[in-house]
Design brief:
2 domains, Spore Coat Polysaccharide Biosynthesis Protein SpsA, Chain A, alpha/beta
Amino acid sequence: MSDFPLVSVLMPVYNGEKYLNEAIESVLNQTYTNFEFIIINDGSTDTSEEIILSYDDSRIVYIKNPENYKLIQTLNIGFSLANGRYIARMDADDISHPDRLYKQVQFLDVNEDYGLVGTGVNLLHGANKSQLLYHTDHASLKFALAFYCPFIHPSIMLRKEVIKGMDAVFDSNYVHAEDYELWTRLSFITKMANLPEYLLDYRIHDAQISSLNSLTQIELANTIRANYLKYYFHNKIDNYSFVFNLLSQKQTLENKLLELLRLYQLDEVNNVFGGDNLNRYLIKRWKDLFLESEKLTLKTYFYFVSSSITYRSTWTLKQLISVFVKTFK
């Protein structure tokens, strides 16, 4: 074994007593053993510290914040302390499957041009269970980042080299969306993937759900998407009413269609996302906007009949009649 561990597993803990034993043991019982396990107690007031200290394992590096620094600062502390060539994230209420670290290390060892790899997850929401796996290849993930975050944060492992020189890995300006912002930045400098396997049990809580739907997080995500698209389109996009926010009630249908058309035309010229991926998505969204709207204006109908996007999508006779009726009823 080398002087320094090959992998640093980073897990912040704040009042995590309910599931903490399962989380810790799922890491300690990995088939891959060359790691340090950095556990940072972020000012917990429950029995979290007692639980952590009950484990006698030399791989555990225990850090205690003097107060509750919150997630972003705690993670940045952890990244600064990590000795590993690779850094794996873990949350105090999740469960890593025994071969998770092994498979992610194997992938990064073989694919030296990749700096980030996530996995599929089993979603645990009370008695309900399901599975989630986003895109697995870099091209699709690069495209998906323009619209949403295609990685489950506690499933990722990244190459420490890709964050070298960053003053702060996670940006405190993006609370509740800090991971999404980091993945977009990393996409500029490295390739990324998701393993097509479900290697983490990920618990969903009501608090997480409310956070995911908070206005603050939506606005931050929009800023991230705007910066991301501006980077790739060389500042040819100059406002925030993009196609990625198609569900926003603040935009009129006409504005949504115009932004959708503009992004479609920009990618035809710049070929940022390889053309086909983006075109398929935009064509589908173009069609859905007309079909989902309750009433259409004459101006909107003009967009429908005059756009090449309309003619590149497939319409049934019933759907065409529906669009006509919603315009002239």
